[in-house]
Design goal:
It is found in: Cell membrane; Membrane. Keywords: Membrane, NAD, Quinone, Transmembrane, Transmembrane helix, Transport. This protein has helices spanning 4-32, 39-42, 61-87, 93-116. The protein is mainly α.
Length: 123
Amino acid sequence: MDGYFGSYVLVAALLALGVAIVAGALLANRLLRPTRPTPEKLTTYECGVDPVGEGWAQSQVRYYVFTYLYVVFAVDAVFLFPWATVFDAPGYGVTTLVEMFVFLGFIALGILYAWRKRVLSWT
């Protein structure tokens, strides 16, 4: 398996092996499990509460906004760790410090915008 395409053949073989192992485990689970369906087992279950009413419910948009804000700030936090390692390197101190303050300024503007639009208020 030498050459340029040899590496791709190896990756494809390992991928096929992984898929075969997962498919085999799922198949073994389906063949070995007990099957005794009862009406209680077939009922929709959520958080230990018996279902009441319709299956459709309205959700507030603010939940999704909170989720998006969390994801944005979690991704921003990921950028702080490489900055902390480069900041200590000789010759990069002032440059990386200025770049990080610009980055944090954009984040602060985003928080300020969300706050002024009253996105962050829960009520």
